[in-house]
Amino acid sequence: MNSMASVETRPRISVVIPAYNEEKYIGATLESINQAIAAYRQSHGHAVEVIVVNNNSADRTEEVARAHGAKVVFEAKNQISVAMNAGARAARGEILVISFADDRPSPNFLVRIDEAMRSGLYIGGAAKILWDKQSPWVSFFNALGNGIRGLLGVSNNLLFTSRETFDKIGGFDERYYAGEDMKFATDLKKQGKREGKKFCVLTDAYLLKSTRKFDQFGGITLAFGLVVFLLCPWLVRFKKACFFWYGGER
Predict the structure, then answer these.
(1) Residue 61: count of CB within 10 angstroms of its CB
(2) Looking at the domain assignment, is residue 220 inside a domain?
(3) How far apart are CA 64 and CA 84, in angstroms?
(4) Are strands 48-54 and 71-74 parallel, antiparallel or unpaired?
(5) Residue range(s) defining the domain that contains residue 106
(6) CATH number at residue 76
(7) 13 — alpha (psi -120 to 50), left (phi > 0) or beta?
(8) Does residue 242 sit within a domain?
(9) How many domains are contained in the chain?
(10) Is 6 within a domain?
(11) Mean confidence (pLDDT) of the chain
């Protein structure tokens, strides 16, 4: 029986994955999540649902997702923040987790997220990242990203929080075409301060991130783009400026 098969009881956790033309990657991602679900069901006995948001794909993304047991919802507007909010609206879980179609979570991520949320200490959080390939450019971006995340006191990878808190924050800011995950993380941290709770960065669970953008665009182009966005952060509100996230061969 597929570990993501639907069950009668309300799921404890919903994993939401926005996906646009991701047929090459989403199968491996869902296989990783299936393994984590099996481990979580064995140790905790709770149900988990996985929702893939078909963000107007022109390939077999939806077919591959269904073949791996995921529930698929359709969102016509091709925008990451809009797709994630659509997935959250369809979710039934007490805890919402946001992942991406080309990133693979560790087998223990559901267990660790559940434990963090049950502790009552955390408003939500995210996980540390590892990369599926290494190169000087990947190392540079990893160090820079860790520095920014450390400065802000948040992480934007494998975000999780309760359904209630997600709704309080208002979900992902749909004015953003990119960077909506970091905006959500900082909003989540602010909400935690209001409630006397911390932002949790899981150190014993991780997200294995894809380096495909380095293959598609090259390190120099990505570095130039990063500088532009740091100097002109308002550009994240314009889709054409965010071609790293919406363009390129998939």
Answers:
(1) 26
(2) no
(3) 19
(4) parallel
(5) 13-211
(6) 3.90.550.10
(7) beta
(8) no
(9) 1
(10) no
(11) 92
- What are the tokens at 240? 């054409």
Tens of pLDDT, residue by residue over 16-66, are 999 999 999 999 999 999 999 999 999 999 999 999 999 999 999 999 999
- 164-204 confidence digits (pLDDT tens): 999 999 999 999 999 999 999 999 999 999 999 999 999 99
230: Cα separation from own chain's centroid: 22
Within a domain: 152: yes
DSSP assignment of the chain, as one string?
Answer: --TT---SSPPSEEEEEEESS-TTTHHHHHHHHHHHHHHHHHHH---EEEEEEE-S-SSSHHHHHHHTT-EEEE--S--HHHHHHHHHHH---SEEEE--TT-EE-TTHHHHHHHHHHTSSEEEEEEEEEESS--HHHHHHHHHHHHHHHHHT---SS-EEEHHHHHHHTSS-TT-SS-HHHHHHHHHHHHHHHHT-EEEEEEEEEEEE--HHHHHH-HHHHHHHHHHHHH-GGGGG-GGGGHHHH-S--
Under 8 Å between Cβ of 208 and 100: no
Exposure string for 161-176, b = 16+ CB within 10 A, e = fewer: bbeebbebbebbbeeb
